[in-house]
Structures are given as C-alpha cells and as structure tokens.
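[job 4471] stage=fold_predict status=RUNNING
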Amino acid sequence: MTQASSPLSPLSPLGGFPQTRLRRMRRWDWVRSMVQETQLSASNLIWPIFVIEGTERTEPIATMPGVERMSIDLAVRAAEQAAGLGIGAVAIFPVTPTQKKSPRGDEALVAGNLICTATRAIRERCKDSLGIVCDVALDPYTTHGHDGIMVDDYIVNDPTLEVLCKQAVLQAQAGASVIAPSDMMDGRIGAIRKALDQAGFEHVILMSYAAKYASAFYGPFRDAVGSAKNLGGASKKTYQMDPANTDEAIREVALDIQEGADIVMVKPGMPYLDIVRRVHDHFSIPIAVYQVSGEYAMLKFAAQSSAINEEACVMESMLAFRRAGADAILTYFAPQVATWLASHP
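[job 4471] inference complete, writing structure tokens
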C-alpha cells in the first residue's frame, strides 16, 4: 500500500492535499471572532489600588512603573474611572504609616483606618456600580510585616483568626462588597463567614486567597505597601504554600469551599496557570487569579526597554488567565486593558 492510499496518511487521495485545513477558520476577522474559544471583557477585571493618607497626593512606586499610591480623594476618582471603563471591581490596599504599625496590627481594627475610610468614600460615590474588594490580613499593619500575630518567631493561627474576623466585619460595615482574606491561616474562611453572618452581612462575598504561594514575585507589592522593610529577610513559608506543590492546592481550595468561600483565588498568576486549570477542572466555583506585582514589573520594564510590545503581551497574558479557567483577574493593568478592549471591540 502506497503512502497516498494509506488510511493513516494525512494527505487526501484527491490531488495530494489535506482535506482538513484549520487555517480556513483563521482567514478573516469575522470568522476568527466567531469561533474564538476564550472571551475577555472589562467586567472580568479587578483593579488593585494603593491608598495613602492626605489629599491630592500621589507617590510613585519605583519597582512598579506607572502605578502610584494615591490619597483617598484620588482613589475615589480612580474608582469612578474604573466604573466608567466597565471594570468589575477595585481592590483596596492601605499603606499604613509607620507610626501606626504595631506588633499585633492594632490599626486593622480602627474604624477610621485607611482601608475603611477609602471603602466608605468609594461606596458613597460609586454606589453599587462597582465592586469593592477589601484585603483581610495583618501585614500592612504589623511592625514585623507578617500576616498574623507573632509569638516568639512563629505566626500563631487561632489567635490571628479572632483579629481577622473583627477586621472583616469592620470592612463590611464600611461598605465592602467582597472580603478577601489573604493571610492563609487555617480555618479563616469558616470563621470569617460565621462572623459576617452573625453581624448581618450574609450578602457580602468571600473571595478566598485559597492557593497563595510563598512566591518571590511579591517583592514590588511589599515595596508599595511598605511592608518590605518590616519583613526584612524573613519568609512566609510557614503559612503560604510551597511553590513545588500542586495537590496541596486542591486540598486548600476544597477546604475553603467547604467553609463557605464564594470565589477562590490562585496567586501568583502566570507561573501558576497549571494550578488555575487544576482548580477549574476539579471544582464548579468562580476562580480569581492575581497577576502579581512581580509579573507586572517584568512586563512593564520589558516594554519600557522595547523588548516586547506592551499591549500585545499584556492582552495575551489576560487571555491566558481566562483560557486556564479564571473568571476574575486582579491586575495593575486593568485600566489599560479595559481601554484597549474598548478601542478594539
């Protein structure tokens, strides 16, 4: 039997050409759009913003070109911009002044702290046109830079939960629509869900940082919120996940779902797309992914040096997150992505 007539041959017996040509479905814009498997819209985006004290103030972040810390009045304007662009939500991260930090992170439980004041201001201006995500963890408030209460040299779990529950309720009272515990303490989702429900906030969404890895990609974020100096050379490996582990991520997500999580998050993003896909395949629950500060910095610095095309590479990364199974994407590129989407409908 000759190759041309073999049933295993990829060639058609008519003229020696393939009958199946996948390129037919790539020829025109209209057909590429019609059969595109993955869609991206501004509503998939969550924009992380950093708030500082004062008015009409901004501070550049050297390790995150194009991202600024902003006073609350400017954060309100940024939130209005986000709503106008169709972005789903903003995530607020406070830059707590050094003099307000303490070993137990007491500022986290002050009703007039930065995150609560910013949340109230944005909620008053934007109403329900925009989601407000509030971070629950103690690292912005502690002198040691860790996410929980430290006893000797160890972050203790259950005493930390008591503080996190109070912090979550305080943020819900300020107007948060999403509470996002990023601390990685065991049992915190169940404890916070119970605390929110008992306080009358059963409608508030819980977005768990379910698979948060002890990653080297967080450096610029720690610069941005001012926790890098507090943390020093210490690591968070005793409570954040080992980058080598994948099955453990499934266990973490399963536990958080059982405890009442409405959305589960994988963090970081691009280096952990395999985890996003595994979570997507195992569970029927909305998934968020965080394109963290180190990922942002790499793309931004590469674009500034003309090594890559910024828009093309950023948009490709957004599609990669969606393709892997993410429903929501936390990214510092959110305003640019939303603008690019609007200009290329």
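[job 4471] summary: The radius of gyration is 22 Å.
[job 4471] exit 0
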